[in-house]
Write a structure and sequence with these properties.
By secondary structure, the protein is mostly helical. The chain has helices at 6-20, 23-38, 51-65, 68-88, 101-123, and strands spanning 94-95, 98-99. A two-stranded antiparallel ribbon has the order 1-2. The chain is globular and about 40 Å long. The N and C termini lie far apart (31 Å).
């Protein structure tokens, strides 16, 4: 969850680690990734506080740290989220009863797709 939780903490630790090279920040970022992976997916697909935000963080963490096992877990989580959306449709938040899923999740999928394509290009 970006708005609160391990994904938001992890994003901040990744940025600080890239800027400082601090091993404790690197460890914090990887610990955040493990916490996110331990959480269930399919409850909410949104970017801010659901699966898409978690996936963007996990993908960034695996790419930034060059962790191939984490990258494999990211692909497995993507498959699970896509399967959940296929089975149940998008499950997203609303603000005061107004559905915000279209803009939020469209941005999330685009960001995730661009990051994955960039990773594939780097590996080739």
């Amino acid at each position: 969850m970006w708005c609160w939780g391990a994904a938001g903490v992890g994003l901040s630790r990744l940025d600080m680690w890239k800027a400082t090279g601090s091993e404790s920040l690197h460890a914090d970022a990887l610990a955040s990734a493990q916490i996110v992976l331990s959480q269930a997916s399919g409850v909410n697909h949104s970017l801010c506080h659901g699966d898409l935000g978690n996936l963007v963080f996990l993908q960034l963490a695996s790419s930034t740290t060059n962790d191939s096992l984490l990258q494999l877990k990211v692909y497995e989580r993507i498959q699970a989220v896509v399967g959940s959306i296929d089975q149940y449709g998008p499950i997203c938040g609303s603000i005061n009863g107004i559905d915000n899923s279209r803009s939020d999740d469209g941005f999330g999928w685009n960001r995730l797709w661009i990051a994955l394509v960039n990773d594939a290009v780097k590996m080739s």
